[in-house]
Amino acid sequence: MNVIKSLGARFNKLWRWIKETAWVQPLLIVGAIFAIIFSIPKFSTWFEAMGIGSSESYFTNYKLSLEGEKKEADETAYTRADKITQAIYENSFAYPEAPGSVNFASSEYAKKLAASGVKETYGEKFFLVYVESSSTACSDAQAGFETLTKGWNTTYGINDGRSFKIHTIYADETSSNDEDYTVTEDQKAFNRYLNNFTDFWEEAAGRLEDTPYKTNGSISDSYYENIEKVKVGEWQIPTILLIDFSEEAWVAGRAGISEAAFTVTGASSIEKAQFLQKMWNHVPMVEWNAEESTYKNVASTEDKSNIFRAEFQKN
Prior knowledge:
Blueprint: H1 2-20, H2 24-49, H3 57-60, H4 80-90, H5 108-116, H6 118-122, E1 125-131, H7 136-150, E2 166-170, H8 189-195, H9 198-208, H10 212-217, H11 221-229, E3 239-244, H12 247-251, E4 256-261, H13 269-280, E5 286-289, E6 294-297, H14 307-313
Parallel strand pairs: 1-2
Antiparallel strand pairs: 1-3, 3-4, 5-6
């Protein structure tokens, strides 16, 4: 108690001296201002490390981790990133003979989807986005995704009526399994993950090269080659995949992994959101060409956001 009283007396004496010494007060005020200014970067770094206010915090909310990877090729996929990729692989590349030839509800594909639980776990339709923590391109894309999320079914009402879903995988994430490897560029956790699914990426690249986003966007073949061959250090960031397990996607021959984009174009967050909305709605569209037994591109400048849904609501 005497110690506390002694400290209190000294503090009061110092405070009286400060109040009675006019030249000290401005110095203290200036010192306090500089202390605040110099501490701002440290606070910003701290907040960003917490995922608060950083450009990547939106993507962090939907992160599927690379932690807990399988160590042997015959082990069951264990990480959350592995699990979603395996689920997509197992439920992609299913095609009807022709639109209307088989009722979707009674199709083997619909039964397989129901048994897998993939729609309940991840969504009937969702974006899977590969990002990095410090990436200008990812920050640009994030602005569009965040705007689209906030305006879903309101500002951006021309969609297929489904809930908006997104999942992310971080290409620069480290793993506790890293200590089991010599972590060079080709052995970091993300590339180990990619190499677990080389068959999937090879098949996926073939499909994605035939989508309207590729043909009409004049997207470089190298992006798809990097997916197909899983080229070390050349996987484009961001890579934005649209995964669609809907009846409409199945009828159109694009069930599962359905579209890919490698940038979100637009001068503003609103334009970026509109770009992603069109991707979600499969604009530009494709339709079945009975004479050639294939799908043809029917893209135009007209906004056909509802066509993909409306054509099959008639049936």
